[in-house]
């Protein structure tokens, strides 16, 4: 679905809500051959000479900057460096952007004073919403802006879904948060369900495929956490009714200026096992094992491929280790992208 999420037309975002709707939209209303041309036109509204656009933002902002522009980062075809630019210039901005006390807002804070209505009105009551957070955070994970993605996911989950009541911390799932960050609407809303994907596929980096006979663990362990562990139920073959529980665990141990990440996958029933830990946006001082390394990795990650169809290779259980130098940032980290020099 990330390939065909939506398109912007005249400043209004039209999202494909069903597979049939998306198919009809792309087959009849838009040309797949001209997607890049359309994206280029709407980056900073270049096709209008920048009129109605904003530096380092996608789409028309003449009526204010909202999450619609950032949702396009949930398309795999959306340029990664644009995602980085929008994320660090606006998404992470706590005075003019979307970085609210409980992140992230539907509309940039710089435009809140221009909004119509106050308490009791829709724009006030729906300042932070589940669907916007699902899509915006998904875009960050998809393009491996992992430092911001993990930080904002944890902050959103703990801020949005926890509240104090009579001296106790109570879990909840509000329909929305108001501009004063108080809860609004249904307190156990299924609108929040999409964020489970941000936990499993985002923080966990978990995917598996019966077709490709593969299991992937590309963790994004939040920097504030010491470890996380998943138990994943899978059915390894199309003809099988047997469920196998795969254990995927990652842990981080800090000693002085070094951090050691140990990543283990156990009970994998697939032929191909991909282990791709995030390097915390730091320089990798050393890693193991030396074999089974992949030449290409997702940005910011190291990768190993264990293929049990080859001699002396076990894909059922494997452990990889990264030793990270916390005093030396990765020179290829998102904050080093040259596009940020153009943002003001």
The tally of helices reads: 8
Q: Would you list the SSEs in sequence order as H and E? A: EEHHHHHHHEEEEHEEEEEEEEE
- CA-to-CA gap between the ends? 33 Å
Strand count, sense and barrel status of the largest sheet are: 5 strands, antiparallel
Structural class, by secondary structure, is alpha+beta
Tell me the total number of β-strands: 15
The backbone outline, from C-alpha atoms, is globular
CA gyration radius, whole angstroms: 21 Å
Binned, the helix content reads 10-25%
The strand line-up of the biggest sheet is 9-10-11-15-13
Q: In terms of per-residue confidence, which ranges show pLDDT below 50 for 5 or more consecutive residues?
A: 1-15
Provide mean pLDDT, rounded.
89
- Counting structural domains, the number is 2
Structural summary, described in words:
It is a single chain. With 344 residues, the chain is of the alpha+beta class. The protein has two domains: 2-199, no CATH class; 204-329, Maltose phosphorylase, domain 3. 22% of the residues lie in helices and 24% in strands. The chain has a five-stranded antiparallel beta sheet with strand order 9-10-11-15-13, with no helix packed on it. Strands 7-8-12-14 form a four-stranded mixed beta sheet. Helix 6 (130-142) runs antiparallel to helix 7 and helix 6 packs parallel to helix 8 (195-203). Mean pLDDT is 89; it is low at 1-15.
């Amino acid at each position: 679905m990330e390939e065909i999420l939506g398109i912007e037309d005249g400043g209004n975002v039209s999202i494909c809500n069903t597979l049939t709707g998306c198919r009809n939209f792309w087959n009849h209303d838009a040309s797949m051959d001209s997607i890049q041309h359309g994206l280029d036109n709407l980056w900073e509204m270049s096709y209008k000479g920048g009129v109605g656009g904003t530096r380092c933002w996608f789409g028309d902002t003449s009526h204010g900057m909202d999450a619609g522009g950032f949702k396009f980062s949930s398309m795999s075809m959306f340029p990664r460096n644009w995602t980085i630019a929008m994320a660090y210039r606006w998404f992470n901005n706590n005075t003019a952007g979307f970085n609210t006390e409980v992140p992230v807002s539907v509309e940039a804070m710089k435009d809140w004073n221009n909004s119509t209505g106050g308490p009791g009105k829709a724009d006030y009551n729906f300042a932070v919403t589940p669907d916007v957070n699902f899509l915006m955070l998904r875009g960050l994970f998809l393009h491996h802006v992992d430092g911001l993605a993990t930080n904002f996911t944890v902050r959103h989950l703990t801020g949005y879904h926890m509240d104090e009541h009579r001296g106790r911390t109570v879990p909840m799932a509000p329909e929305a948060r108001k501009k004063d960050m108080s809860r609004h609407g249904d307190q156990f809303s299924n609108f929040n369900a999409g964020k489970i994907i941000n936990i499993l596929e985002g923080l966990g980096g978990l995917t598996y495929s019966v077709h490709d006979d593969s299991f992937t663990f590309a963790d994004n362990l939040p920097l504030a956490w010491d470890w996380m562990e998943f138990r994943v139920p899978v059915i390894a073959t199309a003809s099988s009714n047997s469920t196998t529980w795969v254990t995927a665990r990652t842990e981080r141990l800090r000693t002085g200026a070094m951090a050691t990440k140990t990543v283990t996958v156990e009970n994998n029933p697939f032929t191909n096992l991909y282990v791709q830990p995030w390097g915390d946006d730091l320089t990798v001082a050393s890693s193991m094992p030396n074999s089974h390394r992949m030449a290409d990795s997702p940005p910011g990650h190291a990768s190993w491929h264990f293929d049990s169809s080859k001699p002396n290779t076990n894909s059922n259980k494997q452990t990889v280790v990264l030793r990270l130098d916390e005093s030396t940032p990765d020179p290829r980290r998102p904050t080093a992208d040259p596009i940020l020099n153009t943002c003001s």
